[in-house]
From TrEMBL, chains A, B:
Residues that coordinate or bind substrate: R131
GO cellular component: cytosol
Annotated binding of Mg(2+), by residue: E150, N152, E322
InterPro entries: Glutathione_synthase, Glutathione_synthase_a-hlx, Glutathione_synthase_C_euk, Glutathione_synthase_N_euk, GSH-S_sub-bd_sf, GSH_synth_subst-bd, PreATP-grasp_dom_sf
Binding-site list for ATP: 150, 259, 318-327, 329, 352-355, 379
Top-level taxon of origin: Eukaryota
Quaternary data: Homodimer.
Entries under Pfam families matching the protein: GSH_synth_ATP (PF03917), GSH_synthase (PF03199)
Record lineage: Eukaryota, Metazoa, Chordata, Craniata, Vertebrata
Alphabetic keyword roster: ATP-binding, Glutathione biosynthesis, Ligase, Magnesium, Metal-binding, Nucleotide-binding
The protein's name in its UniProt record: Glutathione synthetase
EC number: 6.3.2.3
GO molecular function, one term: ATP binding
Source organism of this protein record: Labeo rohita
């Protein structure tokens, strides 16, 4: 039952109707709170007593059906790819060699990786919970394709929030008198799959011992330098990697998710090494890659620098390290590369084709911020959960 | 999957296990927040941005199955009783005559009632959403019976919260390793019935006019003197009662829920006047009444005073007005009655048999308050929703 009119309307009309939007705003916030789209407050992040709603868009973002199912279909290939990469020591070592020279954080992770490898701790179970993020790339000829932005192999979040957002959007669309759109909101429950992955690993671990034995270590953080506040943090990470506990992820799967690995996988011929007898798998993964270009020292890297300086607007310059938020665009690319182009420090970055998404008009709801019509660039993320179990 | 042990335990053991309770506390708060058992915060009651959990007990309170179904079964009789009382002008006038002499708030409500009656506004639809509250009375012989505390005919709340609490308790019981208890938590969705009542009234009202016509006035407050902050509040109440809108409740249904009416209905022979041909209905309602005794001026009231002074611990002295919280017990009953026994002011109160519930040990969760094992006296409430529709 709609609040305001008996006739159904169009989204663009709703977006322009300021009074209607103002009315929907409070209903939307209440719906988010009631459906569990929650986060702790900035003021008291450690209090169990109060919560706010997690930032969300007032309306859902449309994704073409074919691309949505493509993201789901290719996800199992990505699960297998990440797992194979994580078990290929030579590949990881070779790929990350240049990164660890300039990125001390990745270097420390890599040292832990090497140490546990040498100590040969038996790791019979690994659980992977990852999220592959895409943008919809609009080519000048009018076509739309799925382009991977990154794959997160550690602390891939929002599975819980996403599971509860569909009902919030359905409620908002009903109130906004957009029943047709409401029908197109798909059910979404990644939390169930992630939980099944963890439960399966716990079951396989199968200890009957009661008390304080840890079956699974789930990393909610540990992917940014600031997560390691002291030497003790590093010692804790090493201790966990050495333990019998199932890691989600183990250090090799963590490293398999670095941007440098992602870039290496995009190079011609590399995917084929991981799927030698599966050209179809290779093609499906490859189809989601935007061009990635090395900045390693040498001829190929020099070519990348020249390409970026010539057309900076077509590229993104990305730090190799995880965590996001520090991408470099446009003229700033030229500034950074002019400075670093003859230094090995340039290898801390990779260059990537800039994806050309079409902005969608929407309202962003964020605690404490006034509602404002915004041009939004969205990503669509596909979750993957898998458990590797080796018999000894 | 239990957090702490593979073997199922008993609730009394869980209640004593301080470490376990401490662990469950945070899980319980998160579960309440995630399932929508929410309220605004004390600090920012008008902010749409933050919420806290509504106070709740860590574990559900057991209610004997037979009494639970008795409360549901008798509820339809109470719906009909309230509705018949609300339409019996002579009964309301006679019953409330002594109350309005001493209670200026009820007197003002009654004046509005008289005024709209005289003006004869056609009210074809009335929607009633009420909640009948009971305690479990344990008699010395070991029997347990349902005794009505009060019936709320205006702003009967907690239907929404109650609809979402069952899942919270199920989750807590699972985590506390009490799977058998978990199975006994019944589904509970009063919100759906209340919403159906409002929707039905809206449908019957049936206006095709778009825009600002009000179909239903739902009173969230208006039952306490402090809800009427100025003369304008009273004018607004009168305006609403005079309007064509469906009232939930109308002023006569509001008055039908006063404690004085409740007391009058408990007197011998009164229920029979409302259900002359339904001795079974009368018996079922009567069975839930604790003894209620008048303090009106005269012989009967004098007898009540003497009875209360002789055994104050067996009674509760209650103000006639709605809102609760000011009941008088024990020696204080003697103090109040010694003062008022020869004054007509005593008629602002009624005397009631004190119900003897058995306390249940439980933990109360309340934002900002430390968790503490408490002896809890609980009420069980049955919701009723009905729509009266008259053809003219």
């Amino acid at each position: 039952m709609s609040l305001f009119s008996a006739m159904s309307v169009k989204r663009e009309d709703v977006l322009k109707d300021e009074n209607l939007i103002k009315n929907i705003e409070e209903i939307a916030k209440d719906a988010a709170l009631l459906h569990g789209v929650l986060m702790r407050t900035k003021e008291t992040p450690n209090s169990p007593e109060v919560v706010s709603y997690a930032p969300f868009t007032l309306f859902p973002t449309p994704v073409p059906k074919a691309l949505f199912y493509q993201a789901l279909a290719v996800q199992t290939h990505f699960n297998r790819l990440v797992d194979r990469v994580s078990q290929n020591a030579a590949f990881l070592e070779e790929t990350l060699a240049s990164t660890i020279k300039v990125d001390s954080f990745t270097a420390r992770l890599f040292n832990i990786y090497k140490q546990v490898q040498q100590e040969n701790h038996p790791q019979s179970i690994v659980v992977g919970l990852n999220r592959s993020d895409y943008m919809l790339d609009h080519s000048p000829d009018g076509g739309t394709s799925l382009k991977q932005i990154e794959i997160n192999t550690i602390a891939a979040s929002f599975g819980g929030l996403a599971s509860r957002t569909a009902d919030v959007h359905r409620h908002i669309l009903k109130v906004a008198n957009l029943p047709e759109e409401c029908k197109h909101v798909v059910d979404n429950n990644p939390a169930a799959g992630l939980a099944r992955g963890l439960a399966k690993a716990w079951e396989l671990y199968g200890s009957e011992r009661d008390g304080h034995e840890v079956a699974i270590v789930y990393f909610r953080n540990g992917y940014m330098p600031q997560n390691y506040t002291s030497e003790q943090s590093w010692e804790a990470r090493l201790m966990m990697e050495r333990s019998l506990a199932v890691k989600c992820p183990d250090i090799s799967t963590h490293l398999a998710g670095t941007k440098k690995v992602q870039q290496e996988l995009a190079r011609p011929g590399v995917l084929e090494r991981f799927f030698p007898d599966e050209p179809e798998t290779v093609a499906q993964i490859q189809a989601t890659f935007a061009g990635l270009y090395t900045l390693d020292m040498g001829e190929e890297g020099d070519k990348t620098v020249a390409m970026a300086l010539a057309n900076p607007d077509q590229y993104v310059l990305k730090p190799q390290r995880e965590g996001g938020g520090n991408n470099i665009y446009g003229n700033e690319i030229c500034q950074v590369l002019e400075n670093l182009k003859n230094s090995s420090e340039r290898t801390a970055y990779i260059l990537m084709d800039k994806i050309q998404p079409v902005p969608v008009q929407n309202y962003l709801l964020r605690p404490g911020a006034p509602l404002k019509l915004s041009s939004c660039l969205s990503e669509v993320g596909a979750f993957g959960a898998y458990v590797r179990f080796l018999f000894f």
